[in-house]
Amino acid sequence: MLSKLLYVALLPSAWLVLLAVAAVFDWRPQWRRRWRRGLLALVLVGTNLALANEAMRAWELPAVPLSAVPPHDAGVLLTGITNQRHSPHDRVYLTEGADRLMHTLWLYRAGRIRRIIISGGSGSLLLRKGQRTEAAELLVLLQLAGVPRSAVLLEDRSHNTRENALFTKELLARHPDIKSLVLVTSAFHQRRAIGCFEQAGLPVTPFPAAFYSVDRSLWADYWLIPSVEALEQWTRLLHEISGYLTYKILGYC
Length: 253
Hints:
By secondary structure, the protein is of the alpha/beta class. It has two domains: 2-60 and 225-250, no CATH class; 66-209, 3-Layer(aba) Sandwich (Rossmann fold). It has helices spanning 2-10, 12-25, 29-46, 49-59, 99-109, 134-144, 161-173, 190-199, 220-223, 228-250; strands at residues 72-78, 113-119, 152-155, 181-186, 205-209. The two termini are 17 Å apart.
């Protein structure tokens, strides 16, 4: 509940609507002018792709070269990159964070991790008949890519980042040979994930993936032309920041 309240309080589209309503219906002329100026400022900032990208670049942890990752016993791949609400259910549907899977596979093939731990249950509280957990779906893809089943461990009960850490710790208690971990999740999610794993007593080496930020550009469409993509970027970033702050307040990370 706290996370949702913070998210709504930070949501750019909510502020756009509130300012637009105030600018039209406030009976005080001087305040209507102020609301309009605020609305214009928010539109200019919220639709500027360069500003949104710079904010995301500042929040995301930077990419780590493969050569900079020493060998580890295992990599922990956090789920949240499959769409389980699409038919037919004879395949796996990946979403925009699929780099998490590909970069984990890259770490494995490069010999940087010896085993892969997939952490994540279902996106819904109850599994439908015949529905796989998100961890099981990614296992299917890893096996298609030639990763032996013996090299993959599943943690398929968690529904959030805190549970990812807690249930992975329980899993590792049954595998004392795994002592060093690489944590693979989206770059903008790494701060919260690292905090949760360290709070659970699991030190990790972060390996950010699935970047939403891009390299800076000199073209006008990057700096000057308003973009709906910028609003989406701000929304995504502020949603994660609200989740991070909530976890901090609750002592989860």
